[in-house]
């Protein structure tokens, strides 16, 4: 397997003196939706930041097309890899329209600030995310779902082959969560973009991933197709949660139902994990 | 949608530029206001000169008022305009990098550093007069470096940065007082007036270094206008968009410190201009970041009008211009602090 664009080799990631990821090898399959799951503080967001060169590896490297990410000019990286942090902070008072336009920044030269390509990418990004109606609204005043759509529109306008999203559904209600994830999958299916998403929700991960990576304590426990990866044993190993995995009535994929088989005593279960 | 809302697209051949419509309009209006204020400045003084006569002098036509307008008032106006613009730009850079409207060079100790260095050089007579602007720059940079060293704890937290800056500026103020008491009495008197920020007795020899440094820095200012936009996001988002944050921040800070120091050398530490001008310009322009041209024009306008009032209001006594900028600036600073505290402390 050397054909994939984004890889990591012997990756060691630390925050100050704390090692979060220790010696991790990874390959992100091109043209697929990869979802990274794992319990809190397992290093999944840290890994995503490293893949998007926001965090410099202590040892090892992230490779884009075989070249170490740290050796590629950051503007050049921004033309290939888009990344949306978990809680991005917009410039105060910026409108949705201008925010989406900022996504074009890596493609700009100082004397070319608005080309046909810019116009096309911005219009398309706003169409796809249905943010056209919000164009004149300040981002600060939007609802959570609208705001997230605006941010995704900005990342789309960046027009990168690789798109990394850090828990894009965190602050959304269930309907908006599904909406955002549907959008992510649609982008992948229609444009063949490679998408890497960090998600909290196991069942959403199972549903939207082509390739699933399960992490625990800074290492990869299992990876592959969701149907192969998600088992009761894995959920027990990674999350320490007893569960039953049944076929999802909608998709036929794996669906994780927490709880020991046959147990109906909720308080006992909650007590054990509280 | 053919272009971002609120922007005009300027095309010249293959080049294209995005122009924030409201910011452009505000800049034109500020420019007009500044022109009016400048003419008024030249009219008013111990003797009144009519606007028509002022314009004649400006066009270089012979006039009986050529001496009063051209020789007495013009140089002082030039220092005010340039220093005001430089303070406005400096404030814009520092506030942008710190992401905090409180973090202006006159609050975080940069102008005080420039002041202390200059007063030391003046009172101890160690430097020739025309090297004072450069000594001022060294002082400003040293103060900024000091703030940076103390405020850096695995990252630069905005409020720690401001608090330490205020501490450093107070310490530098005391140091300046010490220099004043140790130095020669007459020089100390001169230095004291300079320290309140006064345009009294300022001339072309003060304006010239300021003008030449602004001219030399023009390419850097064009770069900064774009850079300011790119650092207006949080760190991760900005980096993801391809911004080399470390370099851009350092570049903006150094530019801000140099401008504030040079302006201080020319006009004295005129308080609050760097604090006020960027925020006023931004509120007028309603841009997502501080507009550079607007900041420079607002800074120049504030100093011009303040010095006009300082010269005329209590004539024949001429007050230092810094007294007037402080009258407006101090309440604003207090309001900012109260607002920041209630925002971070209490419920939103």
UniProtKB/TrEMBL annotation, chain A:
Record's keyword terms, sorted: ATP-binding, Cell membrane, Ion transport, Iron, Iron transport, Membrane, Nucleotide-binding, Transport
Stretches assigned to the ABC transporter domain: 6-242
Membrane-topology descriptor: Peripheral membrane protein
GO BP: iron ion transport
InterPro entries, sorted: AAA+_ATPase (IPR003593), ABC_transporter-like_ATP-bd (IPR003439), ABC_transporter-like_CS (IPR017871), P-loop_NTPase (IPR027417), Siderophore_ABC-ATPase (IPR051535)
Compartments it resides in: Cell membrane
GO molecular function: ATP binding; ATP hydrolysis activity
Nucleotide-binding in keyword set: yes
SUPFAM superfamilies tied to this protein: P-loop containing nucleoside triphosphate hydrolases
Chief location of this protein within or outside the cell: membrane
Pfam hit, one: ABC_tran
GO cellular component, one term: plasma membrane
Transport found in the keyword field: yes
Record protein name field: ABC transporter ATP-binding protein
Native species: Microbispora hainanensis
UniProtKB/TrEMBL annotation, chain B:
Keywords, alphabetical: Cell membrane, Membrane, Transmembrane, Transmembrane helix, Transport
Family to which this protein belongs: Belongs to the binding-protein-dependent transport system permease family. FecCD subfamily.
Compartments where found: Cell membrane
Primary localization: membrane
TM helices/strands, residue ranges: 23-42, 77-95, 107-128, 134-152, 161-180, 207-225, 250-270, 290-310, 317-338
InterPro entries (alphabetical): ABC_BtuC-like, ABC_transptr_permease_BtuC
A Pfam family hit: FecCD
Record GO biological process: siderophore-iron import into cell
Any one Gene Ontology cellular component term annotated for this protein: plasma membrane
Entry-linked SUPFAM superfamilies: ABC transporter involved in vitamin B12 uptake, BtuC
Keyword flag rRNA processing: no
Superkingdom of origin: Bacteria
Naturally occurring in which organism (per UniProt): Microbispora hainanensis
Membrane topology, from the record: Multi-pass membrane protein
Record-level Gene Ontology MF annotations: transmembrane transporter activity
UniProt key word Metal-binding: no
Protein name: Iron chelate uptake ABC transporter family permease subunit
